[in-house]
Amino acid sequence: MKYWLFKSEPFKWGWDKQKAKGEIGEEWDGVRNYQARNFMREMKIGDRGFFYHSNEGLEVVGIVEVCAEAHCDSTTDDERWECVDIKAICDVPSPVTLKSVKANPKLSDMALVTSMRLSVQPVKQAEWIEVCRMAGMDGKTLKAIK
DNA sequence: GCCAACGTTGGC
DNA sequence: GCCAACGTTGGC
Q: Are the C-beta atoms of A36 and A49 separated by less than 8 Å?
């Protein structure tokens, strides 16, 4: 299983809207960047991701799961663009801010820091665990969402 | 709202 | 295939 991070501007598509979609999930559409699209093509059902609020908030607010693999982006006729569907799994106990990610030496290689503008990014397992720890998720909580 | 960083486009 | 111009993202 791989880990990812999805960025969204909360006033366009926020965590609350994502949660409201429940089990059905929602297309992660509108991505018009090849790198980000390629990452989505790599995703498998069951992969986990962080839901990050950019522009406002600047923090990881929740955990999501990939519930449909890459398919055509319904918001365009341009067949170059594909997207996955994701569904909300849970809130993080306490949001992890960009500031605190930058302040953590263990996370200095995280794409969130190094590739600021990439809206869909891979997260290494060690980074996933570290951010989960910072979010106040203990081992029990992590197991509970599996 | 500004602007730096970076991706994309298009002329040559 | 280079690179200048332009557009967009996203932190501040």
A: no
